[in-house]
Design brief:
282 residues, alpha/beta, Rossmann fold, Conserved Hypothetical Protein Ylqf, Chain: A, domain 2, 2 domains, six-stranded mixed beta sheet, 6 strands, 11% strand, binds guanosine-5'-triphosphate, binds magnesium ion
Length: 282
């Protein structure tokens, strides 16, 4: 599918600056927590972070697990563990999951991190934009100190925050300069890691509907109340959404632009159910 996709690229100056900041600050931490999106655990890993973080121990936090398929999340965690990485699935918005997060960080620190005498371990939080880095930090702080908003590019500079057991370094989200694989770029666009105004929302929404239709036709048919025998392209599905929601232009033409926004918002809010777009792969 990826060959026909229009290229998406978003790497503004502030991201290049963040990459340099990460490379500099890595010497001031004992460990790295890479927050990835449980719906796209492959596409949301930043390939440049591997290099920038060098040999510093890394834990993967599969955040937004409340929006992902539970069975696939378990399989992804198994894969990370089998590769020797600490990994945990998390709903960063659910305060009752703090205990689980602290326990995972404690055991990660015990097993992998070289501690400084009488000092709290310093952990740098990195990841793609909008994945929930600041949310997870606020969970550890037990209060909303780091700025959180539902759009990419909210955190703009580094911020040190002190939790009971750890010193936390919140960082701006960062992507990479060129996507070698357009399906990763599309996955990041679906889930809200890329700013909506740098890609064609209709094209991306069509691609998402087509993917959901191919992956689980029955679930999408039920959600969109499609007839059993209907075979639909992404664009036909988008037109259907527009008609169903009454998004019509003059002359009764489906307003597919408005429908595209609604489809992407629905996915991000979990209205299509729990969806994981990538099977475990390394
Ligand atoms: N459903 C769900 N939403 C979450 C979760 N974690 C964070 N969010 C939401 O995701 C959005 C982005 O959260 P942030 O914490 O600002 O993300 P960030 O990674 O710090 O973003 P940048 O600073 O822009 O890179 C907010 O609307 C959060 O409420 C989660 O586990 N589940
Ligand atoms: Mg942030």
């Amino acid at each position: 599918m990826s060959e026909n996709r229009t290229k998406i690229n978003w790497f503004p100056g502030h991201m290049a600056k963040t990459m340099r900041l990460i490379a500099y600050e890595i010497r001031n931490v004992e460990a790295v927590a890479e927050i990835i999106d449980a719906r796209i655990p492959y596409s949301s890993q930043n390939p440049n972070l591997r290099r920038a973080c060098g040999r510093k121990p890394r834990i993967f936090i599969l955040n937004k697990a409340d929006l992902a398929d539970e069975q696939l999340t378990r399989e992804w965690i198994k894969l990370f563990t089998s590769k020797g990485y600490a990994a945990i699935a998390l709903n960063g918005k659910k305060s009752s999951e703090k205990k689980k997060l602290v326990a995972a960080l404690d055991s990660f620190v015990d097993d992998h991190v070289r501690k400084r005498a009488n000092e709290k371990p310093r952990i740098m939080f990195v990841g793609v934009p909008n994945v929930g880095k600041s949310t997870v930090i606020n969970m550890l702080l037990g209060q909303n100190i780091a700025k959180v908003e539902n759009r990419p590019g909210v955190t703009r500079g580094k911020q040190w925050l002190s939790a009971d057991r750890f010193e936390l370094l919140d960082m701006p989200g960062v992507l990479w300069e060129k996507f070698s694989d357009m399906s990763s770029a599309y996955n990041l666009a679906y889930t809200g890691a890329i700013r909506d105004d740098v890609f064609d929302m209709e094209e991306v929404a069509c691609s998402l509907l087509q993917e959901l239709y191919t992956a689980s036709p029955q679930a999408l048919k039920t959600r969109l109340e499609l007839e059993e025998e209907e075979q639909s392209t992404g664009y036909e599905l988008l037109e259907l959404v527009a008609r169903q929601r009454g998004f019509l232009l003059r002359g009764g033409i489906p307003d597919t632009e408005k429908a595209a926004k609604a489809v992407l918002t629905d996915l991000r809010d979990g209205k299509f159910g729990r969806v994981t777009l990538e099977a475990p792969r390394w």
